[in-house]
Amino acid sequence: xxxxxxxxxxxxxxxxxxxxxxxxxxxxxxxxxxxxxxxxxxxxxxxxxxxxxxxxxxxxxxxxxxxxxxxxxxxxxxxxxxxxxxxxxxxxxxxxxxxxxxxxxxxxxxxxxxxxxxxxxxxxxxxxxxxxxxxxxxxxxxxxxxxxxxxxxxxxxxxxxxxxxxxxxxxxxxxxxxxxxxxxxxxxxxxxxxxxxxxxxxxxxxxxxxxxxxxxxxxxxxxxxxxxxxxxxxxxxxxxxxxxxxxxxxxxxxxxxxxxxxxxxxxxxxxxxxxxxxxxxxxxxxxxxxxxxxxxxxxxxxxxxxxxxxxxxxxxxxxxxxxxxxxxxxxxxxxxxxxxxxxxxxxxxxxxxxxxxxxxxxxxxxxxxxxxxxxxxxxxxxxxxxxxxxxxxxx
Length: 395
Description:
- Residues 340-395 are annotated as: Disordered.
- The protein contains twelve helices and 13 strands.
- The longest helix is centred in the middle third of the chain and has 16 residues, at 246-261.
- The chain is 33% helix and 14% strand.
- The strands form three sheets. It has an eight-stranded parallel beta barrel, surrounded by five helices. Strands 2-1-13 form a three-stranded antiparallel β-sheet, with no helix packed on it. It has a two-stranded antiparallel ribbon with strand order 11-12.
- The chain is of the alpha/beta class.
- The chain has one domain (2-213, 266-306, 330-378): NADP-dependent oxidoreductase domain (TIM Barrel, Alpha-Beta Barrel).
- The protein is globular, with a radius of gyration of 20 Å.
């Protein structure tokens, strides 16, 4: 496993992170989820991403159980706040009260005294952003969070800029990470957000690097394999984000054929490797419902291709792919729990965003790095020999 600095911080995170969206409390049985976490740690993964809203706290609870006994100082726990975790008008949002109460509940579920990265799950326009950021700063000062970041703020670029402006003006700890959706089928963040992150030293934690499984080719020919997201209670994520479209399935088939022609490990690890090859990406967040799936995705670290090779992969995707599909253009956002009146809402997308051929190179368009400002590229280090694990952890 290799490690990269997360944004402008000195925090080293594994190039592959393990997420828990739809898997913990969803696809994977509890015992299997715990085995997956343990195997991930053995493989060198140190970044574990979750959110309080996943299964209304269930994912955090399960992750806490899975991490029991592992050395806390070798683990980076990232969680998120904003979604609806309890009923009533105070059960969601980014107000100071909700943030403080949600943090206390997350710590209890995870069984830890602090989290390493606390993220705003998505913009919540009803909450004044300065109130949110002051609450985050106070949590850092109280020792309950080591760092702060945001997720899905690529959909509100003006708000993302305001976050940096306020934190800089107040002398508060700056966000070190942004968590957007990013894959070969969804490159909307290259329009503006990648350049913004490079300019301000914000590391990207990319979620859905395999486009919810579409890039694996499992849905070829309109198939909906048993046990896949398309046949589960999470099917609406595929349709809501327009990830599973005929155009994207065809693009995935072309990509799979290209991968096979090159003798590469498989479409999933190659898709993850492409994300890791992009500027400003610190880690790719994968999901896994089986240990074999985890191990397959980690093969991304074995994929070493030149820029010209990656351009071939991009061309295979772009050849006739649907530039209007939401998974490519950002026409729909990831569903996260949100308002006081709904269990889930869609993160709003910005109109007019597109992807595919004719896209400016990262950092060359709106929000690009100012002239003379070098793009911040993540530093890498090789896994040191792991010390023997204690029988009991610090929990």
